[in-house]
Amino acid sequence: MTRTFRSSLLLSLTFFFAAAVLYFLDLKIGDKACIPSFVPYTLWSLVVILFLYGMTIYLFLNASNNCTREQQILQKKLATCTDTLDDVQSSLDEAVEKKTFEMAVINGSLNREIAERIQAETDAVKLKKRLQTILNSAGDGIFGIDTHGSVTFSNHKATELLGWSEEELIGKSHHDLVHHTRKNGKNFPVEECPIYMAYKDGDVHFENDDIFWTKSGRSFPVEYTSTPLLDDDQLSGAVVVFKDISKAKKMEKQLDLIVNSAGEGIFGLDIDGNVTFMNKAAAIMLGWTQEEMIGKSHHELIHHSHSDGTPYKEEDCPIFMACKDGQVHFKSDDIFWTKDGSSFPVEYNSTPIIEGKQLTGAVVVFRDLTTFS
Hints:
Blueprint: H1 3-31, H2 39-108, H3 110-120, H4 124-135, E1 141-145, E2 151-154, H5 156-162, H6 166-169, H7 174-178, H8 194-201, E3 205-213, E4 219-231, E5 234-244, H9 246-261, E6 265-270, E7 275-278, H10 280-286, H11 290-293, H12 298-302, H13 318-325, E8 329-337, E9 343-355, E10 358-368, H14 369-372
Antiparallel strand pairs: 1-2, 1-5, 3-4, 4-5, 6-7, 6-10, 8-9, 9-10
């Protein structure tokens, strides 16, 4: 029985009792109306009404107190639920952050997993159809090899670049067909082949300056990645993705010719101010060879001091600023220091290199003012 029902029942019984008493008193008053002593019955009626009023007030206050206590209990429960909800939200945020990190790790190994799943596919017909759709739409040459170095599949781009049909490639040694000779014409031992190594040591091997040989005996420069295939943690071969970089090599030579034909000194910097390339004019003027400069801080080698010998802070260097603020900086009265410790006056432009929207370094073009004075 609920508290509300009990209160309602008690109030109803009280009213019923009061009504019965008043009815009885009314009868008595009616019977004794003519007698002067009927006044006590009227007083009793007043007492009954006061009792009824008091009982009603008592029940109201009791119900009000009960409601207040229940409200306090509910407020405590609400506070507890709020704290619990905050803990759950915090745990959920941590779980989401952990899951995001796990997804980043998973995405990082996606290429390898794709290769593993391709190898693990049991339905050969379905696998071949799926592979051919994906592989033949790729712009790079792709072929697979088993642990004996024999080709297991290839895409249209691979056959187009190599001149061999898919039937001629499959089952044959990739090394004997396309990778048998080095650029210098000497024999290329298969044990030293990075493609071969991938399905022996289980590591990914990348080469950006190698050659492949075509069916006609012609070679062309390639860049390739050889990724091992795993089947139940066992090496089962590799997937090779390659591209013809003949055009890139030709452009690189043309660019190198143009840069090295310039009368001004030119060198490039990465985002940390380290030299990435330099032309012949720069090497002649500075006395440093390209091998001695590349990877080293330009500031520490050629721009470390002012003309009076005081140190030149790197953060004040206009050349270095271009790598940080993305602005072109020009200086018409500065000096560079040579390898032998002498200096010469220069003017230079330091132009930032921006790839996409990313600042990746700067190109510096300078001239010896002594020559032009």
